[in-house]
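Quick one: co-fold with pyridoxal-5'-phosphate.
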Amino acid sequence: MNERLNRLANLPLRENLQGLEPYGAPQIDVPIQLNVNENTHPLPAEVHRAIVEEVSAAAVGLNRYPDREFTELRERLAAYLGHGLEADNVWAANGSNEVLQQIMQAFGGPGRTVMGFPPTYSMYPLLASGTDTTYLAGVRSADYGLSAIDAAAQVREAAPNIVILCSPNNPTGTALGLDVVEAVYEAGKASNAIVIVDEAYAEFAHTGTLSALSLLPGRERLIVSRTMSKAFALAGARLGYLAAAPEVADAIRLVRLPYHLSAVTQATANAALKHADILLANVEAIKVQRDRIVNELTRMGLHPASSDSNFVFFGGVKDTKAIWNGLLEAGVIIRDVGIPGHLRVTAGTEDETTAFLVRLEELLDQGPHTLSS
Ligand SMILES: *Cc1c(COP(=O)(O)O)cnc(C)c1O
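Sure, here it is.
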């Protein structure tokens, strides 16, 4: 491996990629995988059948390029989002990671900046380096919160070209109030900043949590990013999308590869959207397990953050490595996001959640890797 690294270092890599490591959540084949916030419920049989049928029909035409404008898909996504949005307000790509990359290609780039507020989604700095956009790390309060006043002051000071707010935030799980989005948008006016709200987990938010979709009218530099990877249980299909003013989609058309969404991807996503109600039924079951994890971890003396997502971030762990390894030995993989004393776990099915909680409590009872105060 070291020799491989040396050989990599000898290649004429762009300066801003030198020494970087790729995104690398471990893919370990254990029975209970609660580490990358997937929807662990298998696809309902009815949806599976519908996808196979629609993909089969699309396969007949695979000798031709797909609809470059994925018109039916944009119409279906707009209808799903509601808020008076239409197909022209929607853009899609292979996962919201690609959507975010396209936004940075269009609005970032050399000499430009993108501001995020860590701890947040680990892909933001990587997407920044991939597009040669300088990443500016804003700061949160000690409890990882972000207030409107604080966020706006930092944006005013840094005058970035792009701001990314993640709500509900990964890895902490908590949603932002819309006052934060409004304040950041206002503060970004001076630098004409594009403001992205990454709502990858929006469907899991507590009832009453408002989406930034409601702020889109009159804000032509605001972009709301969504994905079918989490709530729709379609991580393997790779379909992410955004809602924004139509001219934002036009900007992205300047950088997207032609025919970037394959006919197979479009057929899969269209079939899934026709059965959105069945797919989203599992979201409620996952929220129950999410709340159960928060309650149980609190009872065990740990410090879970309040979660509007399908995962729980918790502190109070003295020896995160030992807990992570102990769970793995029992066939349960969770995520060490590199924040001392903290771990993150995805809410799985009831059985998966039980296996995680039982094993965790055993490990805590055994010590010595029990709680810090
Ligand atoms: C999982 C996740 C995504 C989704 O990525 P896809 O490319 O759509 O699979 C986007 N943003 C955040 C914060 C995530 O956690």
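If it helps, The chain has a mean pLDDT of 95.
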